[in-house]
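Field: sequence (string)
Field: structure_tokens (string)

Example rows 1 and 2, in order.
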Amino acid sequence: MREENKIIVGSEEWCGFPSLGIPAIKARVDSGAKTSSLHAFNIRSFTRNNEAWVGFDVHPIQNNRKTVVRCECPVVDRRYVKSSSGTKEKRYVINAPLQIGGEIWDVELTLTNRDAMGYRMLLGRQAMSGKILVDPAASFSLGDKKTSEVLQLYGATEQKFTGLRIGLLASNPELYSNKRIIEAGEQRGHEVVFLNIKQCYMKLDADAPEVHYRGGKVLNDYDAVIPRIRPSMTFYGCALARHFESLGVMTLNSSDAISRSRDKLFSLQLLQKSGLEIPTTGFANSPIDTNDLIEMVGGAPLIVKLLEGTQGRGVVLAETKKAAESVINAIKSLRANLLVQEFIKEAQGKDLRCFVIDGKVVASIERTAAPGEFRANIHQGGSAAIVKVTPEEKKLAVKATKTLGLKVAGVDIIRSSKGPLLLEVNSSPGLEGIETATGQDIAGLMISAIEKDLGWKKSS
């Protein structure tokens, strides 16, 4: 559509960059953004004919990591760009001809990884100036494209699945772990469908129980479900997993095992009952018992943990007895449950994460706390590196996983002067840190565990 020699576009449109080998890419049209940006990864700089160039790879199709376009361009600039979240990032800037609405002209593009964004490209006002008018209420004013059309432009075809039908029961399709599991399943010929926990609901009926998805779709025909339930959704997520189990659908981690692992106090009681070494831990309900609780774990410094905390949140180091009393009593006044645990000083802010699948430690990393932090946590700026664990540490991780009844778990262990101590068992462990550090296909091993349990073998 045109007006006064300007192209009228909606809030999202298809465009292309012929010189980059990108015939079609869906763009978010945003006149509030000054610069345009293109999804890029594996970004690397080099020199050609005494000029600065940049090479990069592009996944041009949203939610498709198999289609990759490799590009090279001269560098126009490197500059800081503020993202919509307010963070500044130094990006390479390139110049490339934009093709849209039958017209073509040069635009500046900044290169950044947009994997977590809804669009592979953002079209900013600088590129639109004098050329484009935006109707924010419209979409695809210049025409939409079917998935099959876009795949054909890249010489790809829609994948036909001949394997299992697997549901990924989770909350955020953009998380690295969830993307990798879907990718790993599809690479093995399985259909892996993301199922948003909040959009699932249940029909309890003695004759015809069902799981439904928003819009009324029935989900009873899955071979397996991979529950990756965020802590705030534990009750409902486990109820859904339990309902799938009642339908005869295999769950990679059972609802009962997930429930046990999410109850920090109960899981520690089960672990100690199995003879597994844990840090000395205290639990009490009344503020009157605070002093005895502190002495029970060897006094200050000590760790105070909220029972509902996750990923390092709700964990406080109390360095003195007075500080410990203040923190404990303050939390109890809010009627929140907490654990008090001995502080292992010799660990020096490090712990081990052992990834266990089907009774075997398949990968291990050592996590180091960020400067100024006392607890190793990648989510809070910590770092991870590959590490060789001892047979004793492997045995501890495997036995802890079996004690809670989990097939897949991230087991956190701390090295102390008394030997390895078990900190926690995570039933929905993240994959990014451990896959990045070790280079192992952990997501693929999770899919293999499902194949093994169901006795599925790829036909030759």
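Row 2 begins here:
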Amino acid sequence: MQYSGFIQKVFQKLEKLDHNKIKDIMVELSTEKELYKLVFDSMIEGVIVTNKDNKVILINKAMEDFISISEKRIHFQELEYCNFDPEINEFLELAIAENRKLLEKEVHLHRTDKTFTLSILPLLTNNESVGHVIIMVDITEKKMREFQLRQAESLAALTTLSAGVAHEIKNPLTSIDIHIQLLNREIQKFKPDKVKNVKNLLAIVKEEIDRLNSIVQDFLFAVRPMSMNLSRENVNDILKDMIDFLKYELEEADIKVMLDLDEKIPTVLVDSKYLKQALLNIIKNSVEAIKDGGEIRIKTEGESDGDVIIDIMDTGEGIPESIMGKIFEPYFTTRKSGTGLGLVIVYKIIKELGGDIKINSKEGGGTIFSVKLPVFEKKKKLLTYEETDEGQVVNS
């Protein structure tokens, strides 16, 4: 092993050095070591260094936090003691066995629900491998920011496209509806037995016009600015009213609703009409996801920062991981009769209220919608993003 010039000089003069000089050198080396350790532990990247026997010889604070384990537990232990997920272990074993580099492989640590980039580098001296350096970088927030930016871009595109299309469709729909009403008046002059079939056909046309008009209204709602009438509301009362409103629909679908409401939560500053619409869309989404009966659990709780959380959990079919990133995108739907705007409207309302919405789902394992609502008024803009003091890109 090669030593630094300073250490080599110490070795050469070691026999000539007195006790005090050796003590000074030891203090200097100790100070230098502590500095390196401070720098090592201050890194935001998680780092593990192994020796040639694949035992952990160094680990920094960031990596301890990432894998929820302490340095004392794994110092000079095999890598398997790091408690990595099987997917990460597979990459580690392959890269170490073949002594090759693995650069910024995206991996997900399921027990903490965080996403990282994983890099594995051979530790070389004189072209000989004496261990490996494993580096993990937490990109969870970065992925979330990218997702939010995609959402904003999608909504901006929706605004540009849909405003014109909806306007052009709405005018002829209104004209058709008026003329159908005039036709209905005219056929009243004829004998009932001769006009029965005509009435049925007109009824079908009217029904389809109403359906198209409903779709147009959804488009217009998604793209128009919202005028909020904010007031202090009790979320628990709103939820109770909604479940009472949906009582018969839930019974028909054989769905039980369990309410776990924190009666101590503070009131929130919202527009109750829009909040009811957003929550109604979420609950109906859960109802449609449940096949042959099931359960919806609704929980409310207050956070330490004063905001209120609403969790809507269902036992439905869940959302495949392959489409999780698309569910808030305009026009995206898995249903034959869906417009792909239901959750877009939910997203828009919650953001306009200064809140946030997250989804946690697993195919076959149900879905959790988590809605955060502010107790205090916050600045709200749907399609713009700005940097906070902490450097995070957020809706503001």
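free_text_note (row 2): The first helix runs from residue 5 to 13.
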